[in-house]
Amino acid sequence: MSNLSYIHEKDTAWLTFLEQIERVTPYLSDLKEHIDVLKRPKRTLIVDVPIVMDDGTIRHFEGYRVQHSLTRGPGKGGIRYHPDVNLNEVMALSAWMTIKTAVLNLPFGGAKGGIRVDPKTLSPRELERLTRRYTSEISYIIGPQKDIPAPDVGTNQNVMAWIMDTYSSGQGHTVTGVVTGKPVHLGGSLGRVKATGRGVFVTGLEAAQKLNLHIQNAKIAVQGFGNVGAEAARLFAESGAKVVCVQDHSATLYDSNGFDIPALQSYAEIHSGIAGFPQGKKISTDDFWQVEMDICIPAALEGQITLERAQNLQAKLILEGANGPTYPEADDILKSRGITVVPDVVCNAGGVTVSYFEWVQDMASYFWSEDEINQRLDKLMIQAINDVWTMAEQHQCTLRTAAYILACRRILTARKERGVFPG
Ligand code: GLU
């Protein structure tokens, strides 16, 4: 249970993170005494975001930016636009960023932002006004050396362009490095849009190889068919796997022969979802977790793999494209059933890794080719999954706990060396 006054029993995302921290603590020897620093965010900002709607009325939205840790460098993490966004969720997402950047050894802390809004209900002009006002409200705590936002669920490169423009207007000059995931003409990086999905694929291949799981004809189920899920599905299908089940907000589709992923992608783009795609049959939302599969890729939101679903899941390997999809009690069941989970903090770190490359390129005003980006990305992802795998073997623990050991050692060593001001 959290001892923060503003966290309640129903705030499961943050409580999941706290439980993950409890589980790593026994492995941290002397660094344990610094662990409490991770159990609360360093800085939490809640802002009111009023905007004038197209019909002239004024509406207020609730926005957040949480900097969980700045110990190893500037804050880093996306901005989520979703009707369910709340403080507890943004705190958990910011904390997972702290762990993620440390597992990849990127020189960042962890942060996250969000607005409680369904972006689909706003016109493009309203979305722009919302983004610009939110940016202005959080502008005091973001910056290329302070905290660097990026896209997340419900945001994209257009939103990043408005953030960059609004922040730059306040500074009197163009500051490309304040945000990543920008359009390439504005200091964005080639390969950034596909980076998270690519990272899921690269770490997944590596894990499958270690488990002797053949990708050729492997059955894959993907939850979420956005930026992450669709790209991971495409790369796996290209490598000979069969993507037999796909779920998004609009439908759950099943086809034992495997979907034509590029066709499904074009269809989903045009129709804002996969519902109505001519191939495969529609099954119920919950049946997604019961289908015959070798690899499961949750690539939507947190809190998906519950204890019950973990008991029935047929996969041998889970690749967490989403942040926080698995509850701690489900982790225990999966472990006892011999199902390997490549945790979010490694599996979906491809996005923030190319964000790091984007930030470096912006600083240097020198840009790399897409091949160079992909090669560097693959190298860092393969290194990270291997480091985590070795750690798990050494301690006979799950890959999640192993990733946390690696990350917490890095973060808490930095914390110990910095000391506590004023001492
Ligand atoms: N939102 C992505 C994540 O959860 C990317 C964050 C970033 O690029 O800073 O990792």
Automatic annotation (TrEMBL):
Residues reported in the UniProt entry to bind substrate: K76, K100, S355
Biological process, per Gene Ontology: L-glutamate catabolic process
Protein name (record): Glutamate dehydrogenase
SMART domains reported for this sequence: ELFV_dehydrog (SM00839)
Positions in coiled-coil regions: none
Organism: Acinetobacter faecalis
InterPro entries: Aminoacid_DH-like_N_sf, Glu/Leu/Phe/Val/Trp_DH, Glu/Leu/Phe/Val/Trp_DH_C, Glu/Leu/Phe/Val/Trp_DH_dimer, Glu/Leu/Phe/Val_DH_AS, Glu_DH, NAD(P)-bd_dom_sf, NAD_bind_Glu_DH
A Pfam family that the UniProt record links to this protein: ELFV_dehydrog
CDD domains reported in the protein's UniProt record: NAD_bind_1_Glu_DH
Residues covered by the Glutamate/phenylalanine/leucine/valine/L-tryptophan dehydrogenase C-terminal domain: 189-419
Catalytic center residues: K112 (proton donor)
Acyltransferase recorded as keyword: no
A GO term, aspect molecular function: nucleotide binding
Residues engaged in binding NAD(+): T196, N227
Catalytic activity: L-glutamate + NADP(+) + H2O = 2-oxoglutarate + NH4(+) + NADPH + H(+)
Function: Catalyzes the reversible oxidative deamination of glutamate to alpha-ketoglutarate and ammonia.
